[in-house]
Amino acid sequence: MLNTFNIYYYDSVNSTNDEAKRIVYDHEEEGIVVCAKEQTQGRGRMGRRWISKPGNLYFTLILKQNGHLSSLAQLSFVAAVAVGQAIASFIPAEKKITYKWPNDVLVNSQKIAGILLETEPSLTDLNITYILMGIGVNINFYPDHIIYPATCVNENTKTPISCEVFLKDCLENIKFLYNKWQTDGFLPIRTLWLNQAHMIGHEITASLNGQLYKGDFKGIDTKGALVLGTPSGEKIISSAEIIFN
Ligand code: BTN
Fold first, then answer.
1. pTM of whole model > 0.90?
2. Ligand 1 centroid vs 96 CA: distance in angstroms?
3. CB 179 within 8 A of CB 1
4. FRET partner for 181 with CA separation of 20 to 30 A, picked from 31, 83, 174, 199?
5. Which atom in ligand 1 lies closest to the alpha carbon of residue 39?
């Protein structure tokens, strides 16, 4: 169970996930948070860069898990819903918050946050001990030369909020949802995510290992994999990039 957080603030790090990996064995307890004003080598999913200049929120929460690989995927939904709920508490209700599979958070179809879960030791080692939940939230700016539309929290609020205030709110949500996941399993988290799933019921294209699959986005299965309805039957995709059209 997560009870309290111990937040370490840094001015600048390579990546909060890397810094978390460096300090992970010094701490027995869960709930250590590494937060930095900027990252010089911020990472996104699929080996992409995550532009990490000062002004946005970059943090990694260290969780202890002796579980299976499937737990890792489920925790990315815990993170996405926690971030989505935090955003909802700061922006007007008419703005639409959705979750894009597997773990982006969007406001009015524009990306506002991303999540990168990693393990220590790395996934090639079957004895996973720690999960590093890396979260980046656009608070004050968003990169303008990226391929998908993006936004930031303060573009959507009447009064600007700070990264610190957002972090505290978000951590409380993570605590609640993570503890719920531990007691009640994935289903309640899955329901919350599905209620706000981006493009559910619509046609999407998923790219997996260079191959494109077109079909109706039907939802996620009990492990968090994407369920695509195709002319040749249902296709289950556990990790892919989604192109919406
Ligand atoms: C994505 O959408 O591709 C995931 C982006 C994850 C960015 C966060 S910022 C904090 C943590 N440290 C990193 O280097 N990446 C994650």
1. yes
2. 23
3. yes
4. 199
5. 14
